[in-house]
Design goal:
binds 2'-deoxycytidine-5'-monophosphate; Rossmann fold
Amino acid sequence: MKKIVIAIDGHSSCGKSTTAKLVAAELGYAYIDTGAMYRAVTLYLLENNIGFDDLARIEQALQQMHIAFKRNRRTGRNELCLDGVIREDEIREMRISNLVSEVSVIPAVRHELVRQQQRMGRKRGVVMDGRDIGTTVFPDAEVKLFMTADTYTRALRRQQELADKGENIPLDDIVANLTKRDHIDSTRAESPLRRASDAILLDTSHITIDEQVDFVLERVSAALFAHAVQLTGNTPQGH
Ligand code: DC
C-alpha cells in the first residue's frame, strides 16, 4: 500500500505528539517529534556554553552534534539521542522549554533541522509533528492537520505531564511559557507557525485523545482512497 506523510502542526501542548505517536503505531509508520530536535539543539548549546548569538560556533556545533531517535524496546517509546546518549528527560525540562523558542528562530538551526527531517521522511511512511511540517518540511504531505486548544486546557495538560516526571510547576508559569512560545513561534521570520492553507483545523479543547486519533485515521483512509482511485481510475473494491 502507498505510504504517505502525515504532518501534524500546531501550538504547544495541544496533544500533537500523543496523537501522532498513536497514529504512527496504528499505521506501522515512524513517528518523528521535530520539537525534540529543537530541544536537543538547545541542550547542546547550553552544555557547550555557546551563546545563541554566536553564529559561527552554532554553525560548527550543528555539523558536530548528532541527533537521532532510538526506540526503547521496554517502553516502545522513541527517545531522543544526542551524540549517542538518550536525553529524553532533560530536553523536556522547563529550563529547556524556556529557551527553545529562542533557538528555533535561528535560521541556521532551522535549515539544518529541516534538512535532517526531510531526509528522515524521504521514504514516506512517517507521522511528523512540529510547527512547520505542512508548510516547509513536507508541503506535499498527503494529510495535514493543524491542532490547537485553548491556553488553559493546554497549560493543565502540560502541568500534568511535568508532574508525572516529578517537576511541579505553578500553572501561571506554564501559561506564561506557552503564551511566550506561541508568540515567538508565530512571529519569527523563518517558517513561522501558521496553518497551511490545505491543513485541516482540529481544536482539541473538548475532545479525547481517542477522538483525535480517529479523526486523523479517517483523513488517512480518505487520502489513501483518493490515491487508489487516482491510480486505477476505479473505485477500489469494498467501497
Ligand atoms: O513541540 P515542542 O513544544 O516540543 O517544541 C519545542 C519548540 O521547538 C517550540 O516552542 C517551537 C520549536 N519548534 C519549531 O520551531 N519547529 C518545529 N517543527 C518544532 C518545534
